[in-house]
Write a structure and sequence with these properties.
The complex is a heterodimer of chains A (111) and B (117).
Chain A lengths: L8 E5 L4 E6 L7 E8 L6 E6 L2 E4 L4 E4 L5 E6 L8 E9 L12 E6 L1
Parallel strand pairs in A: 1-9
Antiparallel strand pairs in A: 2-7, 3-4, 3-8, 5-6, 6-7, 8-9
Chain B lengths: L3 E4 L2 E4 L5 E7 L6 E7 L6 E7 L5 E2 L8 E7 L2 E6 L8 E8 L8 E3 L3 E5 L1
Parallel strand pairs in B: 2-11
Antiparallel strand pairs in B: 1-3, 3-8, 4-5, 4-9, 5-6, 7-8, 9-10, 9-11
Classes of the chains: A mainly beta (111), B mainly beta (117).
Chain lengths: 111, 117
């Protein structure tokens, strides 16, 4: 399983765009990149998933460069409710493969 | 869709007792369920992988006789913490996987907070 590295914490003001970068140097050819969000005392929630280039959904964008050794989760105009821990995971999709959670990035949004 | 529930959400027990936690996939059939443990301010740690009708596969360092996992149906998996001790106090989270769902992702339950006195 590819190991991921993320910043431990980030701070942002409400209304700003937040970009969280994840490094995954030994990502395999068949691996997808998935981001989860976790609020305190809750289970993680799926945010977005991608394989290459750019993926966008209603809550976030995911940018993946050509070498796929890193990825950036972009949260547009964050609000206080986006304060959470964000996990970047790398692994096979379409299989029941186990997920390995890294340290995650603790995002604190303030007024 | 793709909702996973856990019961109970919180449990407090005395040291030495056993506690059962249920994980249910409410609107889909989960071919595989996973159990995680999370200590305060730490990341999720996978404990075991459970496939319906077969024995669970435990991660290294997880005692299978202490953390009994049963996956009797495609919608229910249970984790029993036997002879619980204070060091077992943690946040236990299950997730469920099913082929064919959007993104083929794992769907997580809300977690169960176990406190052992």
């Amino acid at each position: 399983l590819a190991k991921t590295t993320q910043p431990i914490s980030m701070d942002s003001y409400e209304g700003q765009e937040v970009n969280i970068t994840c490094s995954h140097n030994n990502i395999a050819t068949n691996d997808y990149i998935t981001w989860y969000q976790q609020f305190p005392s809750q289970g993680p929630r799926f945010i977005i998933q991608g394989y290459k280039t750019k993926v966008t959904n209603e809550v976030a964008s995911l940018f993946i460069p050509a070498d796929r050794k890193s990825s950036t989760l972009s949260l547009p105009r964050v609000s206080l409710s986006d304060t959470a821990v964000y996990y970047c995971l790398v692994g096979l999709t379409g299989t029941a493969s186990k997920l390995t959670f890294g340290t995650g990035t603790r995002l604190q949004v303030t007024l | 869709g793709a909702v996973v529930s856990q019961h109970p959400s919180r449990v407090i027990c005395k040291s030495g007792t056993s506690v059962k936690i249920e994980c249910r996939s409410l609107d889909f059939q989960a071919t595989t369920m996973f159990w995680y443990r999370q200590f305060p301010k730490q990341s999720l740690m996978l404990m075991a992988t459970s496939n319906e009708g077969s024995k669970a596969t435990y991660e290294q360092g997880v005692e299978k006789d202490k953390f009994l996992i049963n996956h009797a149906s495609l919608t229910l998996s249970t984790l029993t913490v036997t002879s619980a001790h204070p060091e077992d106090s943690s946040f236990y989270i299950c997730s469920a996987h099913s082929y064919g769902l959007r993104y083929n992702e794992q769907f997580f339950g809300p977690g169960t907070r176990l406190t052992v006195l």
